[in-house]
Design goal:
It is a single chain. The chain is α+β, with helices and mostly antiparallel strands and 420 residues long. 17% of the residues lie in helices and 29% in strands. A five-stranded mixed sheet has the order 5-4-13-8-9. Strands 6, 7, 10, 11 and 12 form a five-stranded antiparallel sheet that branches. Strands 19-18-22-23-24 form a five-stranded antiparallel sheet, with no helix packed on it. A hairpin with a 6-residue loop joins strand 8 and strand 9 (198-202). The chain is globular, with a radius of gyration of 23 Å. The two termini are 35 Å apart. Mean pLDDT is 86; it is low at 1-30.
Length: 420
């Protein structure tokens, strides 16, 4: 590409970003905003620097394919909080318009096996005692092994997880106000999307730490992430975090709705489906170096990444630079919070030789992140079937928390070495 073409592309990109920044606003006469109006708009809400270009991208694999899903650029992350605008999202509407209109018109119904069925307005919930916490969300389909170019991307393989500060009304408070009746065993949560996404949550978890969240990272929840209300079920797989929440029915047994008895069920090699797999197992991912973040030269490199577990706090993270033959403990950068992303760092001097980098974490209950072979043994997959079973699109499984190896080549490029 010559300099003229490069300058032209840069100009078009900057012009497009400027248009996005002001929301495409034009005056009544059809004229573009003046520099004064653009400045006022930026002052009112703000925007990031024009030199920052980290964005979400459409997720590579869906079954069935759909556009309403995007993945977080983990390779660019620092700390543990995901900016709201980069938080991954997906829905079950398959191209239908997202719900979440005027919050003043939104209603949340609590009914079923309760003494006092109650309907809450959005503003009603904001007047109640506040619950808040920093929690990760991870899609059950995160870390599905991919083939080809998409496999050479930490964003595409592992980008269906993010971490935010969530604020809202504790679900336990709403259920106590409604008055649980004898026989109340499950809470059936339903969204207002066109498919009425529904899932069943044991009443013990509902009364423990579940939030009806209206805020994310200090502002209202983003539309793609459930505006105006969504559930946050800390430490549990993301399909439990119902978005655009409109009702909770207290019942005496799980309803086995479409999603929890169908696509959310996990088919194992013995032909049986595991309907309810709630808690997320311990998991860690090296985000630098990775396929998007190659090494620029020999010498010092800080290996860094994220670890999380539905079982509580991360107790330790270990890093291997020799393909798992030896392990050394990494540093955990604070804060280290239960059921949240934890940042880890490890000092490494690269000598220019090929190397295979891995990380594994241990949570506060002593549960250790498994290798792919260990996960296969747990699921009953023979060693010679690991790649066909986990790697073939028709047999992709959910809830994968196996150790992810990255191979550093002699030229500093990084490849996915899960099956090599």
């Amino acid at each position: 590409m010559n300099s003229t073409q490069s300058d032209r592309r840069r100009f078009l990109k900057d012009a497009a970003l400027a248009g996005i920044a002001v929301g495409g606003i034009t005056s009544a006469s059809g004229q573009a905003p003046t520099s004064e109006s653009r400045h006022a708009d930026i002052s009112a809400y703000g925007e990031r620097s024009q030199f920052e270009n980290s964005v979400r991208v459409t997720a590579a694999f869906h079954d069935p394919p759909k556009d309403h899903s995007s993945v977080t650029p983990l390779q660019d992350s620092v700390g543990i909080i995901t900016p709201s605008g980069l938080h991954f999202w997906e829905d079950h509407d398959f191209g239908n318009p997202l719900p979440g209109g005027d919050p003043r018109q939104h209603r949340l119904l609590i009914h079923g096996l309760v003494d006092r069925p109650t309907t809450y307005l959005w503003e009603d919930l904001k007047r109640l005692p506040v619950g808040s916490g920093v929690y990760f969300i991870e899609s059950k389909s995160n870390s599905k092994p991919l083939k080809g170019r998409d496999a050479e991307s930490v964003q595409q393989v592992h980008g269906k997880t993010s971490c935010s500060e969530w604020t809202g009304a504790p679900l336990s408070l709403l259920l106590r106000e409604a008055g649980l009746q004898k026989g109340a065993k499950w809470a059936l949560a339903e969204g207002s999307d066109s498919g009425k996404y529904t899932t069943s949550i044991p009443i013990e978890k509902a009364m423990e730490d579940v939030l009806v969240a209206y805020a994310q990272n200090g502002e209202s929840v983003r539309p793609q992430n459930g505006y105006p209300l969504r559930l946050i079920v800390p430490g549990w797989q993301g399909h439990n975090d119902v978005k655009w929440l409109r009702r909770i029915k207290v019942v005496d047994e799980p309803y086995m709705a479409k999603w929890e008895s169908g696509s959310s069920a996990d088919q194992w090699p013995d032909g049986k489906a595991r309907w309810f797999r709630f808690e997320t197992g311990p998991k860690s991912i090296i985000t630098r170096p990775c396929p998007e973040n190659r090494l620029s030269g020999h010498g010092y490199c800080e290996i860094t990444g994220l670890a999380w577990s539905g079982g509580g706090k991360i107790l330790k993270v270990e890093v291997s630079t020799d393909g798992g033959r030896s392990w050394k403990q990494a540093r955990l950068e604070g804060p280290v919070l239960p059921m949240a992303h934890t940042r880890f760092c490890f000092d490494w001097n690269w000598d220019g030789e090929e190397a295979v980098l891995q990380s594994r974490c241990t949570d506060e209950r002593g549960e250790i992140q498994p290798s792919l072979a260990e996960l296969g043994r747990h699921m009953g997959v023979p060693p010679d079937q690991l790649e066909p079973y986990f790697g073939f699109p028709g047999k992709l499984k959910d809830h994968i928390n196996a150790i992810q190896p990255w191979k550093v080549n002699w030229d500093g490029s990084v490849r996915n070495a899960l099956f090599s």
